[in-house]
Amino acid sequence: MEEVLTAYVLDASYEVVGNEPHVVLWAVTEDGRRVLLRDRRFRPYFYVLPEEGADLDVLAENIRRLSKPRSPIIRVEVVEKRYFGRPVKALKVTTVIPEYVREYREAVRRLAGVADVLEADIRFAMRYLIDNSITPCTWTVFKVRRLGKSPEYLVDEVYEIIDIVKRLEKFVPPPLRVMAFDIEVYNPRGTPNPRRDPVIIIGVGTPEHGIEQLVAKDGGDRDVIKGFVELVKKLDPDVIVGYNTNKFDWPYLLERSRVLGLKLDVSRRKGVEPKTSVYGHVSVAGRLNVDLYDFAEEIPEVKVKTLEEVAEFLGVMKKSERTMIPGHEIYKYWDDPSKREVLLRYSRDDVKATLGIAEKILPFAIQLSSITGLPLDQVGAASVGFRLEWYYIKNVLKNTFST
Predict the structure, then answer these.
(1) Strand ranges (DSSP E) for 265-312?
(2) Average pLDDT for residues 332-342, to the nearest whole number?
(3) Which residues contact 193 (CB under 8 A, 6 or more apart)?
(4) Separation CA 187–CA 185 (nearest Å)
(5) What values do phi and psi take at 289, rounded to 5?
């Protein structure tokens, strides 16, 4: 049975099911349910700009001959576009599997009569958002069919999208679950190595539940990492925040988990581990991973971008009121039982500072996401140039090419 659903879109991705691409939207409904919206109708495409005087019918037929059974070219059609302000006729080439766009792009480029291949580098999920005027961190009205719950996804409900009714000019987010985390690593040899040095403390905090610490026992961190996975699932955050987590905490936890034979199963899609994606950010399926360090880098008044300096500048926590430990001496505080409590306080203050910085920065980051069209977990990691580019694509790319 069809129904109308208003949802706040958090993120977009896609999956290939059988031989069919499914766009997947992670969202929160007006009544606070975490849902997954699946759209099976969209297909990847790109444009071919012909050379002046080229026969479009011949060129279209030559493109069709490139079709491969795994991802056939299902349509080649003539479209009217503008290229640097000049009206042109181009060919729109549609296929099935998004990964094949790159392969077809290179093959088409080599054909006689082709001047250029355009918009083949726009990622499939982003293409879907642009074409359907869906913006992350805003509300959209969908016509959907309820599919029920799925053991594969940690959400309250799964829906199939039948139609996209409209985007609402409504930007106030629903209450989002925000979780901060920070790891401390044993480092007696200087720079820690995940193949050798255990994670000794993971601090986790939320505004509602306070701070919890997972502490290693007897130097082993297997239970610490397993406990972290269980705690993330229990707290079920929409947004995970950290400080320099894209470059240190996440890569370290992922490598350490592999060494221990564990799966860092913290996403809302069961069995899918975090992975480094565009702009260097770490993607956690169904959750928005926001590295606050990306935003701190853009505060010119703070010359030294440490967590302590940024927290003090933003009025979150004075350095004089928090526990300070030189990073290279963490192992000493761990090895000395009389100092271990100081290390635990240091870890707690790191999590507390991270939560406080998130409270200051997330409203701005959410607005930036809704303006640029980049998902919240990408907008901080993307350069100003990329943000402007996506803003341009989102607002201008209707009858013109993205060049």
Answers:
(1) 275-276, 282-283, 288-291
(2) 95
(3) none
(4) 6
(5) -90, 110
Task: Using pLDDT thresholds of 50, 70 and 90, give the confidence band for residue 401.
Answer: low
Q: Is 344 helix (H, G, I), strand (E, B) or coil?
A: helix
Percent of the chain with pLDDT over 70: 98
| pLDDT tens for each residue of 33-55 | 999 999 999 999 999 999 999 99
Alpha-carbon span 196 to 213, nearest angstrom: 22
How many other C-beta atoms can be found within 10 angstroms of the C-beta atom of residue 80? Answer: 9
Q: Which residues pair with 161 in a beta bridge?
A: 144
Please, are residues 358 and 245 in contact by the beta-carbon 8 Å criterion?
no
Predicted local distance difference test score (pLDDT) of residue 76: 97
Joined together, the tokens standing for residue 280 give: 């260097």
Place of tokens 């493109």: 63
Rounded to an integer, what distance in angstroms lies between the CA atom of residue 375 and that of residue 137?
7
The encoded tokens of residue 115 equal 């001047």
Q: Which two tokens stand for residue 175?
A: 């209450």
DSSP letter at 197 equals: P
The answer on pLDDT for 19 being more than 80 is yes
Q: For residue 399, is pLDDT > 60? A: no
Q: Which residues contact 363 (CB under 8 A, 6 or more apart)?
A: none
- The distance of Cα 182 from the centroid of its chain, to the nearest Å, equals 19
Backbone angles phi, psi at 249, to 5 degrees: -60, -50
pLDDT of 398 reads 57
Q: Measure the CA–CA gap between 227 and 336, rounded to whole angstroms.
A: 24
Q: Is 211 in contact with 202 (CB distance < 8 Å)?
A: no
